[in-house]
Amino acid sequence: MKSLLISLFFILSLTFAFSQENSPVLKVGKTFDFGQIDKNSEGIGNLKFYNTGKSPLIITNIASTCGCTVPSWPKEPVMPGDSGIINVIYDTRRVGTINKQITISSNASEPDVIVRISGNVLDIPENIMPQKIIDNSGMPVNR
């Protein structure tokens, strides 16, 4: 009985190792920086990823830590050796530091991958008033 259990464990171990060896592998940067973006501008970032595994990669879901960060991704499988783009849209009506994350869920050997999203939304006044230039007499100068 003991040898039967050992044999069964060995077969299951080989099956698991073989399935891991042939699974897709998601390669993506662990961080994405929007940099400095203006308030109310188009806050779209393109995050490129690769399938470096041996079978098709299927992204099943991408969850964000906030409703202000909305990801979209290819719904079709990404074949071995191919790449794809994850679009991340940030709500630029929110001024200040961006410090969010998305979790990419897939059929890859590492099923959940976290990517940190950073950047800074600058508060740019919508209506900038022209400045009047005044000379030493206190009178406005036409320019």
Could you please describe the fold and organization of this structure?
The structure is a single chain. With 143 residues, the chain is mostly beta strands. It has a single domain (24-125), classed as Immunoglobulins (Immunoglobulin-like, Sandwich), CATH 2.60.40.10. 14% of the residues lie in helices and 44% in strands. The strands form 3 sheets. The chain has a 4-stranded antiparallel sheet with strand order 1-3-6-5, with no helix packed on it. A 4-stranded mixed sheet has the order 2-8-7-4, with no helix packed on it. The longest helix has 20 residues, at 2-21. The protein is elongated. Mean pLDDT is 83; it is low at 5-18.
Short description:
Helices cover 14% and strands 44% of the residues. With 143 residues, it is mainly beta.
**Alpha-beta classification:** mainly beta
> How many DSSP E strands?
10
Fourth CATH level, the homologous superfamily = Immunoglobulins
How much is the radius of gyration in Å?
Answer: 25 Å
Q: Which CATH top level class fits? A: Mainly Beta
How would you describe this structure in keywords?
single chain, 10 strands, four-stranded mixed β-sheet, elongated, mainly beta, Immunoglobulin-like, 143 residues
